[in-house]
Design goal:
Aldehyde Dehydrogenase, Chain A, domain 2; 2 domains; single chain; 16 helices; seven-stranded mixed beta sheet; Aldehyde Dehydrogenase, Chain A, domain 1; five-stranded parallel beta sheet; alpha/beta
């Protein structure tokens, strides 16, 4: 390398370093601005903030709202599915976050609806709850409305938010922030949606400034956060979860088509991207492989994803390996038929015996697993204790009642009617924990 080449390389390195330092400084200034906006939020009544958040969500429930329509078109192009499929996700996601629900969970989780505004009598002292000085949300790729919900949780306790979507994720969070800013500029100033990679200097600067970090992702990814967050910052981590469905003999006999449609509603929601989508459906009484085709068809109708052959190379390879193994297992008698090959975006596989929930190796795979009695699913959930987010049940009220407590003791975090798994309330205890009580710190006033 010549002297001139070395000199040019050194100059470029200096330019890169200078640009990085500018980015870090800008990020620090952005964090300081968010903190100032958070201080302004802290001085406002919580009810006022909840009203604005509820109004913004209401806009996104209006099918004719211009922001909603633009969002449907953008997400339709991003996920390569029809706008109707996106509309179902937006309707389910925004429906829970009403003003009344947001205020109600403050009373439920903090003990008094005024606890975010003033000292109130709770237990043996006067107490007040305060949100973090700055909260950072690190989202993973999944259901589009999940990062929005994380931001709403923090804003609802008067905390400013730096939100970092996953690389390659959609832009719904940024679109929602624009709606929120139009309704209430003060709240809009208290949230920033970053567009840079998670390890970018700006994101690192935000993590260093954070008082609390909410992160969703793989176990190994979450384990790396400790060393990079600021000293004293609290971590609220949401690791991998799976969900499952139970179709009892009575439900299938009473209305087979209704069971199929309800199962597809939950499985195909957002392309099975979230933790509330079943990865296995247990069929009481053995069932029939005739279920494969109608369930596959119903999933395709709800989320008509591109064919496997049109997916990215990694997904194609993972699915091809899974399909080849399934063919081997079928020859060996441990698996049955399969509906959905490389020309489809969905695959439904029949197993010959009971199996616990397991993460599929590729997106949009559902296993149908026969059980003799619905009670057998309790042991199947216990085998993966701490991993089952929700079990959706199609059955009689008495059957649901008999299963619920044993499932709870097996580590299941939520039991819901099949077809309603994707519509948890605003006060849903995600991962079995409170939604906002984990975000605040308490100040006691005695004497």
């Amino acid at each position: 390398m010549s002297f001139r080449e070395r000199e040019t390389g050194a100059a470029r390195e200096c330019e890169v370093q200078a640009a990085r330092e500018r980015e870090v400084q800008e990020a620090r200034e952005r964090c300081a601005s968010l903190v100032r906006a958070g201080e302004a939020l802290a001085a406002r009544p919580a009810a006022e903030i909840h009203a604005a958040l509820g109004a913004a969500c209401a806009h996104w429930l209006e099918a004719a709202d211009p922001a909603r329509r633009a969002g449907e078109r953008a997400l339709s192009a991003h996920y390569r599915v029809p706008e109707a499929a996106i509309a179902r996700v937006l309707d389910a996601g925004f429906a829970a976050w009403t003003e009344r629900a947001l205020r109600g969970r403050v009373a439920l989780e903090l003990g008094d609806p005024r606890a975010l505004d003033q000292f109130v009598e709770l237990g043996g002292a006067r107490r007040m709850a305060a949100g973090p000085r700055l909260g950072v949300v690190l989202a993973s790729r999944g259901v589009p409305t999940t990062p929005v919900g994380d931001a709403i949780d923090l804003l609802s306790v008067k905390a400013p938010v730096w939100l970092k979507p996953a690389s390659g994720a959609d832009d719904l969070a940024a679109r929602f922030v624009r709606t929120l800013t139009e309704i209430d500029a003060g709240i809009g100033a208290a949230i920033h949606v970053s567009a840079e990679a998670g390890d970018a200097p700006t994101s690192v600067a935000a993590l260093e400034a954070a008082e609390l970090v909410v992160a969703t992702g793989r176990t190994e990814t979450l384990a790396q956060l400790g060393p990079v967050v600021g000293s004293g910052a609290r971590l609220v981590l949401h690791g991998p979860r799976l969900s499952a469905a139970v179709l009892t003999r009575n439900a299938l006999d009473a209305d087979l088509d209704r069971c199929v449609q309800a199962l597809a509603d939950d499985v195909a929601f957002a392309g099975q991207a979230g933790c509330l989508s079943p990865v296995v459906a247990w069929i009481e009484g053995g069932g029939s492989q005739d279920l494969l085709e109608p369930i596959h068809r119903a999933c395709v109708e709800r989320w008509p994803a591109p064919a496997r052959a049109e997916g990215d190379a990694g997904e194609r390879a993972a699915w091809a390996e899974w399909a080849a193994l399934a063919d081997i297992e079928r020859a060996g008698g441990t698996a049955g038929g399969r509906e959905g090959g490389p020309d489809s975006g969905w695959s439904i596989l029949w197993r010959v015996g009971p199996e616990p929930p397991a993460p599929p190796p590729a997106p949009r795979i559902l296993v149908l697993s026969p059980v003799s009695l619905a009670a057998e699913v309790v042991d199947l959930c216990a085998r993966v204790r701490g991993m089952v987010a929700t079990v959706g049940i199609a059955g009689t009220a008495a059957e649901v009642e008999r299963l619920t407590k044993p499932l709870a003791h097996a580590g299941v975090e939520r039991v819901a009617p099949l077809g309603r798994m994707q519509r948890p309330p605003a006060d849903w205890r995600r991962d079995g924990r409170p939604s906002i009580a984990d975000l605040v710190r308490w100040i006691d006033r005695e004497g």
